Amino acid sequence: MKLYHSPMAPNPDxxxxxxxxxxxxxxxxxxxxxxMQQDHKKPxxxxxxxxxxxxxxxxxDGTKLTESRAICTYFEGIFPEPxxxxxxxxxxxxxxxxxxxxxxxxxxxxxxxxxxxxxxxAPLEVPxxxxxxxxxxxxxxxxxxRLNEHLANNEFVAAGRFSIADITLFITCGxxxxxxxxxxxxxxxxxxxxxxxxxxxxxx
Length: 204
Prior knowledge:
With 204 residues, the protein is α+β, with helices and mostly antiparallel strands. The chain is 52% helix and 7% strand. Strands 2-1-3-4 form a four-stranded mixed beta sheet, with helices on one face. It is globular, with a radius of gyration of 17 Å. The protein starts with a strand and ends in a 6-residue tail after the last helix.
């Protein structure tokens, strides 16, 4: 298997951290793709990922997978231990619920802020919108506060144990550095959780 990734980019990191948490990072061949150099838009990469998405996984039979959550689902199936997506219907639903909340209400909102406000993104987000940036920033900060409240009474994000939802939140908090924002340093319960996750070693 070959995994196309871009170090420090959140969606590729989600897959790499997931594999590392499984202890299976050495099961794939890693191929780096530079987003800033727009390698993901080159014809040879579009043959792998028609929508120019990173990460992408090419299986041994030639099947091509994109979308970080889908790739993680595949790895969960072929490397079932340790379980990171739920052992029964209830756990699976709770973990997916929180994973989706973080993805849609925190990660995507922060990405909108970053893409529309950071000068580095100007060549990729044409045109940038100050109004969209402000709206996304407000939504991201609000969700960080809601997650902080949730973690006041929960050691982990979902189902009372470590899961992909923790990985998704961890990479999102790390992604926030690009806007010089560290929500885990501002919000105490999120900070306690982040420190505990940092000790697990899955981030490398």
